[in-house]
Amino acid sequence: MTGPAILVLAAGRSTRMRGRDKLMEEVAGRPLLVERVATAQTTGAPVLVTLPPRAEAPARWQALEGAGARLVEVADAASGMAASLSAGLAALPADCPGLLVLLADMPEITSADIADVLAGFDGAAILRGTSAEGVPGHPVLFPAGDFPALARLTGDAGARDLLRREGARVRLVPLPARHALTDLDTPEDWAAWRAERPA
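RESULT FIELD:
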């Protein structure tokens, strides 16, 4: 491989949506999950998507059939984000030089934002998107040297501890407005976000 791959984390259970699946909420005329994967694919990087077992989230699997992304089943998805990272890493080609981690519930990250983070890749620094004011968020791009540490993570904290530990190697990439911070976890989050969108 010549450049980093993109891993869309989409194995969460939407527990705070009170029965709705946040990744199947409509954005720009299609489910958020489909829209996020398509946005990642516009960069030309290989795209992998972690998903819960098919029986637990059949609509997500069906929505991505034929999308051209590699779908990775996370058997223990309920144990937290670390399980998704581990499954995604295991599905990468051995020569993959880096991995950009993109959370599927962040609708404001654009293809230009992803391209900006990818453009800074040097194989050594960890690149992390921030808000326009510099508040760290997502996406995060890890060089292959960090893959073993990522694979050892447990629970639902994601790579937070790793980012703290490797702080000297983290390079911040400012993205517009609050693109790097906006995630939609509850029906109220969705209602507020939609109210701000132009009709």
